[in-house]
Amino acid sequence: MSSRPVVLSxxxxxxEPLLSNHSDVAVTVVDDHADAADHLATDPVDCVVCANExxxxxxxxxxxxxxxxxxHIPSILLTDExxxxxxxxxxxxxxxxxxxLAIWRDPASRLAERVTLLSQxxxxxxxxxxxxxxxxxxxxxLLTIHSPDEIADVxxxxxxxxxxxxxxxxxxxxxxxxxxxxxxxxxxxxxxVGEPPVGRVFExxxxxxxxxxxxxxxxxxxxxxxxxxxxxxxVTDIEESDVQLAEILTANAxxxxxxxxxxxxxxxxxxxxxxxxxxxxxxxxxxxxxLVSRQIVEATGYDRDELVGEHVSKFIDxxxxxxxxxxxxxxxxAGDDGSRTYRTTGLxxxxxxxxxxxxxxxLPSDDGEFRGTIGAVRDISDLVETEERLAHERDRFxxxxxxxxxxxxxxxxxxxxxxVDTVNPAFERVFGHETGAVVGQSVNDVLVPADDEDTxxxxxxxxxxxxxxxxxxxxxxxTADGDRYFLFRGIPYRTDDxxxxxxxxxxxxxxxxxRERHLQVLxxxxxxxxxxxxxxxxxxxxxxxxxxxxxxxxxLIERVTxxxxxxxxxxxxxxxxxxxxxxxxxxxxxxxxVVARLEPLADGLRDRYPxxxxxVEAPETAMAHADERLDLAxxxxxxxxxxxxxxxEPTVGVRVETDADGVDIHVTDDGPGIPAHERAFLTGDxxxxxxxxxxxxxxxxxxxVVRSLGGEVTFGDPDVGTxxxxxxxxx
Length: 731
Known about the structure:
The protein has 731 residues and is an alpha+beta fold.
């Protein structure tokens, strides 16, 4: 140990460290944790000193990290003023001591005194800390070395320079000759495996200590790799601690030789795996073929003898040979042990060619001379075909994009903001914005009216949230001719590191929307007036019936009243049809328990028609693909059975059956059956324009509902009775 303690001082955020120029200690100053760790890995240190107040890691954090790697080196933490918090942390073992500088008249001398005492307090029965630090530095150095001779040199230097042995030698085994030879040459003899002392130690794997009259030598086996020997000029110089330290060095050396051997094997395997993936050839320095794999022979159609010895242009076209030569020159000039990949054309024996990809690498060379190349070849016919097909699809898409009559904007999302990448000519024509003027701007800023900004943001959110699913909505947008209404469809098509990309397609529905609104107004006014006026007519007919006595007059009034009631019911059916159309856009079918919907529906119909019998036969549950529109279909079928029977007390049966194909709802009644002209609505034999007096409109509602649920309506045998079957898809 030096007469002066060796201190590693880590710079704080204040002035120059206290001990920088103190005569009682030898100080090395570093700036941060990384520099401190590097220094401790290579140089012996008696004590580490660090100020708590510093930029980056505090002194407590920094010393804590160093102590986990170097627990044997004492440390002192400094603060300007006393701190109970810091003192408590140091007491937990983060540092050896805590020194608040403000309480000392001469803090530098006090710090030097504490460093000296801590250095002297190290356990004298164990190796000094600088020796252990030196061994640790050697172990770290061995991790970076891959050559056996270099490993031997580092081990010899450590044995002499760190452990103070007078001489040392490393013998490495030659597996072929079964001999152990000195790793660095020199005058030491070689030994046969089994020949004492070196060959015997290698063979038995047992360390040996030889004490002679004037000197002593220790021999340690290095696993399967060789033997380490160290010695001194005096028998009395060998102590138990020396043996222990030499064993530590031997263990590190054995691990390094084992790792180097393992890396050499892995490198060999890696070379094979990297370069013999499909088709492989080897060329000499003149580009003539030395070796070809079976796959190349089969792919080219040549015999192996027709390729070996020939120039590589035998199966690679001239342009590919020139490009390969350029890449080989790059690799060699850069001293690069990697590879270069390029595409070219391969030539077959039958005169045909094939697109190929070649991965080039240099043959290994110990003397730095060019020895030749290795080429791994891949047939990329399918890849090229796919690329050509994609290029064709891109051309088709570009043509569609350019000629589509609807405006289209191609945008990318930056955060939650859609930014214009490009637009088609229809966009420029309809919205009055040239492409160059809107690229890079927010779609919302370009198109969305100020009072519709919230709905525009909601569409953006839905487009981002729905993933690959399109988003559609009716929107109002600013055009060159003023505000117009559009059916907007947002279609996400790619997500990458630049965000989500999407197409926005705008179909002008302003005229259609106006027509629909006009028809809707006319329809509601007509339906309301029709229902109201029929109610008035029926009321007058009731009054007239009360005033007349002739039975023929009563019969006539009854017939007229029935007709008026039919017209009123027609208005109700039209209203139901309007509801179906509206719900068709508002509802989404899903798993639905049919039985759970039928039971309360049947109870309501029984209350409405107390003179009728409604029987329900169903299992406990029957799950189908449906929603609440199913109620309207079943209600129409049951009412149809009640209203069109001549029986004074009509009976309607509802039976639910399930199987693997879905759920069937059978509705039967004791009426005269459904006329052929009404059945024709389902078969398509009867057009909507042929509806007379609303005949079949209720059945049309049923059919519309069931088809909107993905189901089907059929009829039972008309000769057996009146039966309508509603088939629903399984849930």
